[in-house]
Specification:
Elements: H1 15-27, H2 37-49, H3 53-61, H4 63-73
Length: about 80
């Protein structure tokens, strides 16, 4: 495995940030807000369990593009 250097805590290269965003998007699809914290956690658990493995696979497969975008941007913003 080749290790590359990148900025610490770079959201562009942190796939979990994109997975959290996916989860938040799924949670925003509910018509009503949760009435209790336990209801929120139940929704989070359900949506987390229902994440299609293809979502994770796409994030993994996007890493070469992300690395290239970071290198091209030279410490500037990327579309990720």
């Amino acid at each position: 495995m080749k290790i590359i250097k990148w900025p610490a805590q770079s959201p562009d290269l942190n796939s979990i940030e994109h997975l959290w965003n996916h989860l938040k998007w799924q949670l925003s699809g509910y018509e009503t807000l949760p009435s209790r914290i336990i209801e929120l956690w139940e929704r989070v658990g359900k949506e987390w369990a229902d994440i299609d493995p293809a979502v994770c696979q796409n994030l993994v497969e996007s890493m070469p593009k992300r690395v290239a975008a970071i290198l091209k941007a030279r410490k500037s913003y990327t579309k990720y």
